[in-house]
What does this fold into?
Amino acid sequence: MTRGIWKGPFVHPSLLKKVDKLKDGGKKQPIKTWSRNSTIIPEFVGHSFLIHNGRTFIPITISEEMVGHKLGEFSPTRKFAGHTPADKKAAAEGGTAKTPSAASAPKAAVAAPGAAPKAPASSTPKGKDDGKK
It folds into this structure.
């Protein structure tokens, strides 16, 4: 469920105070914040923030396209470490990675030299009605 329109966007009160203080001053220092759930409002455009991701602060400069989003959307909390080593090895070889269907497909049995060939298996299923005719 979304937030009610009559309430307006949520912005942490201390964050609003800090932005107003920077507008009155002249320095463009980044604002350090832990409030990832605060909505970006038009007054934030042009300011830089240090948004906490749980471990470090990620520097973000607010642009017009970011208005309406949350601050936490721009500081990822998880680091993508990459795929498994097998995928990296296949990519380094220049070929495509093995598909699961090709890897699990049964291999064709090779008969020993001089051995008699096996008869192909019957394709009809055996059931209750096979012996009654």
Q: What stands out?
A: The longest helix spans residues 13-24. The beta strands are 31-33, 48-52, 57-61. The mean pLDDT is 81.
